Amino acid sequence: MKFALPLAALVLATVSAPAMAAFTLSNDNGGDGYVVVDPLDPRIFTLFSANNAPDIDSGFNNVTSYGQTATSVRVINVRWSHVTTDERARFDPAGWFLGEHFFQLTDDDITTGIVQGGSFQIAVNPGDEWGFYIGTSDSFGGRGQLNISTVPEPGSWAMLIAGFGLTGAAMRRRRLARA
Asked: What's the CATH class of domain 19-151?
């Protein structure tokens, strides 16, 4: 019985920040774009655009996307930043998608090496396909990169704080019982 409260608090703290479902990487037109996921937190990743110069018939356009299908109603808070090695950001545009709709986040006129970024929210329903993309219109001027960090929605923060509170209460109760 003395382990019940700490165990309950630990379980509550663990489930309070819902894990994201597995994302899927996709490239079109034979692109070689890729993703690097933070090994400690899969909600943090960097998406890189293609850089392999497809044939001219394809128009040199590649889109690298990293997305998933929502399993529940959620609001995802996103922080993002983008940088390109091309002359202008318009050669490596980046953004997010929901279903068949793409929303560009980047300013096309930003020049090489300038980091642009911000934050926004995505609301999804079960079955919605959503995620992030980075394109390239030249595929040989260097890669662009889109850094993404998703954070728990406010309701998750409240549950996380409650979990920590229960853990603290259990630890205090244990200390008082020893005295």
From this structure: mainly beta
